[in-house]
Amino acid sequence: MGINSNRVENFSGPACLKTTTGTVVTIPLDMAMPPLQVHKVALPQPRTTVQKLRHRLSEIFFPDDPLHKFKNQTWYRKLVLGLQFFFPIFQWAPNYSFKLLKSDVISGLTIASLAIPQGISYAKLANLPPIVGLYSSFIPPLIYSVLGSSKHLAVGPVSIASLVMGTMLSESVSYSEEPILYLQLALTATFFAGLFQASLGFLRLGFSIDFLSKATLVGFMAGAAVIVALQQLKGLFGIVHFTNKMQLIPVLSSVFHHRDEWSWQTIVMGVSFLVLLLTTRQISIRKPKLFWVSAAAPLASVILSTILIVCLKSKVHGIQTIGHLPKGLNPPSLNMLYFHGPHLALSMKTGIVTGILSLTEGIAVGRTFATLKNYQVDGNKEMMAIGLMNMAGSCSSCYVTTGSFSRSAVNYNAGAQTVVSNIIMATAVLVTLLFLMPLFYYTPSFILAAIIITAVIGLIDYWAAIRLWKVDKLDFLACMCSFLGVLFISVPLGLAIAIGVSIFKILLHITRPNTAVLGNIPSTQIYQNLNRYREAVRVPSFLILSVEAPIYFANSTYIQERILRWIREEEEWIETNNRNSIKCVILDMTAVTAIDTSGIDTIKELRKLLEKRSLKFVLANPVGSVMEKLHQSNILESFGLEGLYLTVGEAVADISSLWKAQP
Amino acid sequence: MGINSNRVENFSGPACLKTTTGTVVTIPLDMAMPPLQVHKVALPQPRTTVQKLRHRLSEIFFPDDPLHKFKNQTWYRKLVLGLQFFFPIFQWAPNYSFKLLKSDVISGLTIASLAIPQGISYAKLANLPPIVGLYSSFIPPLIYSVLGSSKHLAVGPVSIASLVMGTMLSESVSYSEEPILYLQLALTATFFAGLFQASLGFLRLGFSIDFLSKATLVGFMAGAAVIVALQQLKGLFGIVHFTNKMQLIPVLSSVFHHRDEWSWQTIVMGVSFLVLLLTTRQISIRKPKLFWVSAAAPLASVILSTILIVCLKSKVHGIQTIGHLPKGLNPPSLNMLYFHGPHLALSMKTGIVTGILSLTEGIAVGRTFATLKNYQVDGNKEMMAIGLMNMAGSCSSCYVTTGSFSRSAVNYNAGAQTVVSNIIMATAVLVTLLFLMPLFYYTPSFILAAIIITAVIGLIDYWAAIRLWKVDKLDFLACMCSFLGVLFISVPLGLAIAIGVSIFKILLHITRPNTAVLGNIPSTQIYQNLNRYREAVRVPSFLILSVEAPIYFANSTYIQERILRWIREEEEWIETNNRNSIKCVILDMTAVTAIDTSGIDTIKELRKLLEKRSLKFVLANPVGSVMEKLHQSNILESFGLEGLYLTVGEAVADISSLWKAQP
Fold this sequence. Notes:
3 domains, transport (chains A, B), membrane (chains A, B), homodimer, mainly alpha, 10 strands, disordered N terminus, two-stranded antiparallel sheet, secondary active sulfate transmembrane transporter activity (chains A, B), Transcription Regulator spoIIAA, STAS_dom (chains A, B), Probable sulfate transporter (chains A, B)
C-alpha cells in the first residue's frame, strides 16, 4: 500500500473507492478509518478497594515483579532459583571456566594495584588510620562476591563516603585527641549505614534513592571534590596544623594562614607526582585502551616516592610519612560498636547519610556496567548485598565501602568477567596485609594527597553541568544548589537543599501546568496545539483545550481560572475577527493522568459556569483512573453520555452533526 | 452527515465514495480522514531563555492576566480602571441605587443580629475580652467594604482563627494571669497575620494557599470543631477550672475531673438553649427559605436568656455572666503592638498560622458566592484587602477577622447585593457599642457556649469525608491525618502532617505512574488501553506502550524497568500463544507532560537496550516542552525522522509499510 493513497472505512469487505479522477483503488480492511459512529468511553474494570490497594502496593514495591521466574516451576527448581536469588554466586559458579578465571585474575590484580594506595588514602580522608583502608579492601569484596549481582563492581572504600564520614564525625569528636572514640564512632556509623542500606533493600524502598537526581549528584560530587582537593593541600604542602571543618572558607584560610609551615621540598615532590598522575589520567581518558597506565600509576608512584624518601631521608627532613602499620588480618571489632551514650545520634546520622551516598554510587555504577553488558541488576537486592557487606565490615574493622566508580571502570576495561576479580583483589590485599606492611613505613603523605586529588578531580563533571544548563534550567539550579550548599554550608544541608529544589520543581510543574488551545490538522483526525503546528486550524464554534497535568488541589484553582481566561481571550479574538462565536468547549483530558476530589469539583464548577453562559462543555478521552474517579463521584450522571467522548475528533463530529440536526 | 456513513480523505475536492452496495456518497472536506502521508512532529517555536523565563513567571504569578482590561485604553480610562482595580467601591458606587440599598439594609441587619452574639462568643474562644469581638465586627467590615471585591462576604471574627489564636497563644502566656500581655500578643499576631496576608497578595503568591487541599481542610475543620465544642462544655456545665490545652485528652479529662463544679441549673438552661439553636439550624438547613430562623435565633436566645437570668437572679446563684463591658468605640491600639522581646516569635508564628487559615476561609467563601452569582473574585486582590483590613484592625483593638462562611451564607440568603450590607452591619455594631453595652451585663456564659457549639457543629462535614473515602482513599487519608493530628497533637502540626500527606500523594503519583499497553480499536485510528477497552486488539509485531506521567529523576528508573518488564511479559505471552514476535516498540508520549535530564537519559538508554535486542523503538506525539528538551539534548539526532511520529496510528502505518517494502 503506497503513501498518499485514499482510504475508506467501515466496510464489510475490501473497500473500493472512486476518486475524482476516476481511478478505483482497493484498500485492505486493516487500514480502514473511523466511522462517525461514536465510541463510548469505557470505565476501567470494577475492582474492590483491596484489589486496588494490592495493585498499588505491588507497583510501589515490586514493579520489576522479582518472583516472575518462580512461576510455574517445580519445588526443586524453586529451591535452586531461590538459592540463586539470594546468593548470585550459585548462578555463575557452575559454569565458571579457566578462561574466565584468566580474565578475572588480570583484572583483579589491576584493581588491587589501584585499591591498595587508594584504600590507604581514603582512610586518611575519613581521618581513620591508613590500615583501616586496607582492612576495608579485604573483607567487604569477599562478602560482595557471594551476595552481589553485578559482575563488574569493584568494592572498597570510596572518596565521597570517606569524606562525608570524616566531616560529620570530626565536627563533634577530634580524631587526633580521641582516636579510639573516633574509630568506635566510625565503625558504629558503618554498622548503621549497612543496617539502613539492607533495610531499604529488604523493605523494597530502593526507589527512595531515586530522589537524589543526577543533577543533584553532579553538583554534590563537584562540591565535595573541590573541598577534598583543597583539603589535600595539607599533605601536598606539608602543613601540620589544619582545620577540621569542611567548608570552603575555613579550608582555604587554613591553607594560607599556615604559610610558615609550607615545606618547599614536599611541595616540589608532591606537585611533580601530582602532575605525573594527572598526565597518566589524561592518557587513559584519551585512549581507553591504555587504561592500565592510569591504573598502575598510583602504585608505581607510591613505590617510586617511597624509594625516593628512603634515599633522601638523611638529607631532607620534615617530610611526613605513613609510619608504622601493624601487620596481620582485620581484627574483630564487634566490641567497638557503640550503641549508647551521647554520640549515638551522631553515628546514626552519619551512618544514614554515608549509607545513602555510598548506596547511590554503588547502585549507579552497577547499573551503568550492567547496561553496557546487557544484564540486569536488581536494585533492591544490590542494596541488601551492600548493606550486609557493611554490617559485616563494621564487625571486622572496616568502614563504609561500596562499588567505586573509578576502580569499577578499570575492572571493566581490564576485562573482568565475574565478581571473582573482587576475590583476586582481596587476595592481593591479604598478601599485602600479611607481608608487605613494613614497606609502607617511608611512604610520604604527599603521595596520598596526590592520589586523592587525582581521583576526586574526575568527579567534577563540567560537561554534565553545561548540558544541564542547556537542557533544563531548573535541573541546573538544583545542581548549583547542591554544589554551593556543600561548599559553603555543609554536606547534609547541601544535599537537603538540592532534594528540596528537585521536589519543588515537580510541584511547580503540577501547580502551573501547560494548557493549550488545539486545532485540527486539515484532512486528518489529529488535533494539535495551535501555537506549535502552523498547519493546525481552529474549528469554528469550538474551543478545544488540553491540560497537560493531573488536576489536583494544588492546581485546580489555577486550571479553572486559566480555562476561563482562554475562553475570554478566544471570545475577544472572535469579536475582533468577526468569526462565529464559541458554542462548545472541549477539554482534552488525555494528559490529565490523575484527578482528586478538588479536581472533580473544578470540573463540576466549570460545567456549571459554562452552562450559565450557554456553552456546551464536554470531556474527551479521560484516562482510566480519572474515569473511575469521575464515575465514583457521580459527576458522570450530570454529564451523561453526550458529555464524554473517546477522542476530540469524535466529539467535534458528533456535536456538529447534532447542531445540524437541530439548528 | 449521517452516522455510520463512509468517508474518504486526502482529496482536492469534495470526496465521493462508491460503497459496496453501489451508492455514491459525497462527503464534505472538513470531515475527511488522514492520509498515509506522515506528519512531522513540530518543534515549539524557538524562544530564548529570557522569553521562556518571562512566560514561566507570568504563568506563575499572573495566570489570570490581571492587567488585560488596561490594554488599548486611553490614559484617563486607565486611571479610572486603576482606581477601580485598587478600590472596587468605585466600580459599584456610581450605579448604586435605592433598590439595592433596601436589600442591603435588610441583609446587613440580619447579619448584625448574628454578628453581635457571635463576635462576643468568638472573642471568648480566643481567650480575649468579649468586647474585642464587637470591636472586630466594626472596623474591619468598613475597611473591607472599600477594598474588597466580593459582594457577599460578611466580615468579622471566625471560629477557626479564634480557636487557633487562643490555643497557640495560651500555650505560652496565661490569659487569666497576664491579660494585658495576652491582649498585646493577640493584637501583634493580628498585625503579622495581616502583613503576611497582604504580602502574599502583593507578591502574587496567592496560589500557596492552594496547598491546603479541601480534603485537608475538611479534616482540620472537623477536628477543630470537636475540640471547640468539647471546650465549650466548660461554659455549658458551669465549670470554673479548666485546662488551657487544646488536645482531646486534656479537655475531656478537664470536663470529667471537675464534676464537683458542674452546676445543674446551668446545664439545664444551657442544654435547652443548645437544643433550641440546633433545632433552628436544622429548620434552616431543611428549608433554605427559612434562613432567618437560624439567623435570628442567636440574638433571640441572648435576649431571652438575659431576661431569664435577670428574673431568676435572686433565686439561682453561681451562673457565670459576661459582666461589665465598657461603652464606646474601638480604642486605638498601635501602642499595644509588641515588636521585641521573648514572645515576638510566638506572635509571628501565631499570626502566620491564623493568617493562612483565615485567608483560606475568606477566599473560599468569596469564591463560592462569586461562582453562584457568576462574578469574578481576584484571589490576590482579596488577600491584599483582607490583609490590610487585619493590619488596620490590629491598630484599633481588633483581632483576626475574615469572611465568615456561616454569616456570608446568611448574607447571601438575605438578599445582599453589595458590600454595603457590611457597612449596615458595622453601623448596627456601632449603635450597640455606643448604647447597648450595659444590656449584656447579665448575659450568661452558657448561651455563648451554646452559640459557639451550634456554629462549629456546622464545620463537621461527614458527607464530605464519606465522599472522600468513596472517591479517593489517599485524600481521605490526608483528611484523617489532619483530623487526628488536630485532635491529638496540635493545630500547626496537624496541618503540617496533612500538607505533607497531600504532597506525598503528588510525589507518589509521579514516582509510580500508570503504564499501559495500547491496542487498536478496529476500523479506527484510535489506540486505547487493552485492559480497559475490550474491543481494542493488539497490533501484530508491535508493542504500544503509554506512560501516564512526566518522566523525572524520581521515576526514570521505574519507567525503564517497567517498560522492560512489559516487553518481557509480552514476549512470554507471544511464546505461549504462538504469535508473531515483537519487532517494534512504540512509546505513546501524549501524557508525558514534561521530561528532565534523567528522563532523557532513560529514553536514550531504552533505545540502546532495545537496539541490542534488534527492536525498533519510536516515540509518538511528544508534547511541546518534551520535544524542546529532546531537541536541546541532541537525542533527536539519534532517533532521526523515522523515530518520531505525530500519532500512534501514523507510526504503525508507516512502519508496517516500510516492512512490506523491505521484507
